[in-house]
UniProtKB/TrEMBL annotation:
Lineage: Bacteria, Pseudomonadati, Planctomycetota, Planctomycetia, Pirellulales
Annotated GO biological process: NAD+ biosynthetic process via the salvage pathway
Pathway: Cofactor biosynthesis; NAD(+) biosynthesis; nicotinate D-ribonucleotide from nicotinate: step 1/1
Species this chain originates from: Roseimaritima ulvae
Catalytic function, reaction form: 5-phospho-alpha-D-ribose 1-diphosphate + nicotinate + ATP + H2O = nicotinate beta-D-ribonucleotide + ADP + phosphate + diphosphate
Enzyme type, top EC level: ligase
A Gene Ontology cellular-component term: cytosol
Function: Catalyzes the first step in the biosynthesis of NAD from nicotinic acid, the ATP-dependent synthesis of beta-nicotinate D-ribonucleotide from nicotinate and 5-phospho-D-ribose 1-phosphate.
PANTHER family, alphabetized: NICOTINATE PHOSPHORIBOSYLTRANSFERASE
PTM notes: Transiently phosphorylated on a His residue during the reaction cycle. Phosphorylation strongly increases the affinity for substrates and increases the rate of nicotinate D-ribonucleotide production. Dephosphorylation regenerates the low-affinity form of the enzyme, leading to product release.
Protein keywords: Glycosyltransferase, Ligase, Phosphoprotein, Pyridine nucleotide biosynthesis, Transferase
Protein name: Nicotinate phosphoribosyltransferase
Family to which this protein belongs: Belongs to the NAPRTase family.
EC number: 6.3.4.21
Matching CDD domains: NAPRTase_A
Length: 494
């Protein structure tokens, strides 16, 4: 029995209905029945053609710390039903107080390129335990995957230029900001302005200065001189407080004085006006003055589309500061990840696949214990992803049936190289996988993106990468849809 209070416990970070269902499973003797759930999303965000998986390490941290603290139990004891009676009986609360996770978790590594309907997480174990984790797992994976994807788009538009994440001031609260900084780094950002994210996750921190610095002095040259004196090794001058090109001249003057004292101006920052024209003018002025290595940083409501446009206009910006639109996932505020039951074990220990029907075929869940197999061509380029059911042994040669259209089929020969993307993370409640560094995850994102055709990665009307069900699984799903419909029809006639 856990008798310790823990005011930092996140165990109650769940929807009430998970606990009411858990109570029901417990009361009906089903708590220990084994089940398998899959966490997946149904469409890539931002009308894009790919998604970057993120959030796994925070999920593992959440699961490592998962236990009902005594103050969690005390709170649950206060909850009442409509009749004023306690919602949960004491024996159930006792059960929760003693609960230790004994689940298995398989997951796709952070920084992997993923596609709709592929399970990012597969949770297997007691149905009660699987159920009470649903909301928190979705909360963590949905947001970080969304932001890592946005960051991958923004950084790919920047074509190798550094992107600095400047979002903290307009992020969705404190945790939203920290999680966004982490995910943005995974997606490809070079640094964050968020110092706590730097401390917590080891992300490089970078920054310039604000207009207030310039405004607090009598003149811009005085402000730049004072800044140069303060930190001669970190000088990016914000030049647009009064007149941008005049500001560039003042920055050049300050840069010359820095040189005389043995230091180098790092660059200038533009934060308003026509960023293409101003950057071209500023570059010319800096080069003419002998500051060919000075960076031109730009910020001001940037996103992947504006960066792409500015590049096309010939902007000479070399560092991009991107805040609001990155950390708030403009213009898609959420990834629609879901968590669905795939199979349940019967009393004899046999796995029974489960399905949820929907009016829309694409929303009908996929039954089974799923795994994702990614096939490659001889150049290491990903060619097709196959979702298969581990309850149905597959032979070497496979047929992949497209998810959207069952008439589209891809034959795979046994010798085709592949990776199975779901990797064992937790066995019987214990983490069994090593945690990669954030740096390694960030590198993985870039390596992964190189495995996909540019047509899949483009922003507008991207080419649809092929994802399908292994043919046996497709047959099982079709069969189950027909049988379930038939059963529903018979029930409605009774
Ligand atoms: N050459 C350009 N092409 C397309 N969009 C640009 C270009 N230059 C700047 N922008 C974008 O246009 C938007 C408006 O910029 P602008 O500086 O005119 O207004 P602002 O944000 O109101 O300025 P301020 O920060 O001074 O209030 C910003 O999102 C900016 O990034
Ligand atoms: O535009 P974002 O992508 O969010 O990048 C961060 C912005 O935050 C800062 O200024 P702030 O917006 O606070 O004030 P300003 O617009 O008046 O410069 C900075 O100068 C950027 O413009
Ligand atoms: O360092 C900067 O220039 C910065 C940091 C946060 C937001 N905008 C700009």
């Amino acid at each position: 029995m856990n008798t310790t209070p823990d005011s930092n416990s996140l165990t109650l970070l769940t929807d009430l209905y998970q606990l009411t269902m858990a109570y029901g499973y417990w009361k009906h003797g089903k708590a220990d029945q084994s089940a398998v759930f899959h966490l997946f999303f149904r469409s890539s965000p931002f009308r894009g053609g790919y998604t970057i998986a993120a959030g796994l390490e925070p999920v593992l941290d959440f699961l490592r710390a998962f236990r009902f603290a005594s103050d969690d139990i005390d709170y649950l004891r206060t909850l009442q039903g409509n009749d004023g009676q306690p919602l949960f009986e004491p024996a159930f609360l006792q059960y929760l107080a003693e609960l230790e996770l004994t689940l298995d978790l398989d997951a796709i590594a952070e920084g992997t390129v993923v596609f709709p309907h592929e399970p990012l997480l597969r949770v297997r174990g007691s149905i009660l335990q699987c159920q009470i984790l649903e909301t928190a797992l979705l909360n963590i994976i949905n947001f970080q995957t969304l932001i890592a994807t946005k960051a991958a788009r923004v950084t790919s538009a920047a074509k190798g230029d550094a992107v600095l994440e400047f979002g903290l001031r307009r992020a969705q609260g404190i945790d939203g900001a920290l999680a966004a900084s982490r995910a943005a780094y995974i997606g490809g950002c070079a640094a964050t302005s968020n110092v706590l994210a730097g401390k917590r996750y080891g992300i490089p921190v970078k920054g310039t200065h604000a207009h207030s610095w310039v405004m607090s002095f009598d003149s811009e040259p005085t402000a730049f001189a004072a800044y140069a004196e303060t930190m001669p090794n970190n000088c990016v001058f914000l030049v647009d407080t009064y007149d941008t090109l005049q500001g560039v001249r003042h920055a050049i003057d300050a840069g010359k004085r820095l040189r005389e004292s043995g230091h180098q101006m790092v660059g200038i920052r533009l934060d308003s006006g026509d960023l293409a024209w101003l950057s071209i003018e500023a570059r010319r002025m800096l080069d003419d003055a002998g500051f060919q290595n000075a960076a031109i940083v730009a910020s001001n409501d940037l996103d992947e589309h504006l960066i792409q446009s500015l590049k096309l206009q010939g902007a000479t910006i070399s560092v991009w500061g991107v805040g609001t639109k990155l950390v708030t996932a403009y213009d898609q505020p959420a990834l629609g990840g879901v968590y669905k039951l795939g199979a349940i074990q019967d009393a004899a220990g046999n796995w029974q696949p489960k399905i949820k029907l929907s009016e829309q075929l694409i929303k009908t869940s996929t039954p089974g214990v799923q795994q994702v197999r990614r096939y490659y061509d001889s150049n290491g380029q990903a060619t097709v992803d196959m979702i298969y059911n581990q309850l149905q042994p597959i032979s070497g040669d496979c047929t992949v049936v497209a998810l959207q259209d069952a008439t589209h089929r891809t034959q795979i020969t046994a010798s085709t190289p592949y990776d199975d993307l779901l990797i064992p993370m937790i066995r019987n409640g214990q983490v069994v996988a090593d945690s990669p560094s954030l740096e390694d995850i960030r590198n993985r994102t870039q390596q992964q993106l190189q495995q996909f055709d540019r047509t899949v990665l483009r922003f507008d009307n991207p080419h649809k990468y092929r994802v399908g069900l292994e043919s046996e699984l497709h047959e099982l799903k079709s069969q189950m849809v027909l049988e379930t419909r038939q059963r529903a029809k018979q029930e409605s006639q009774q």
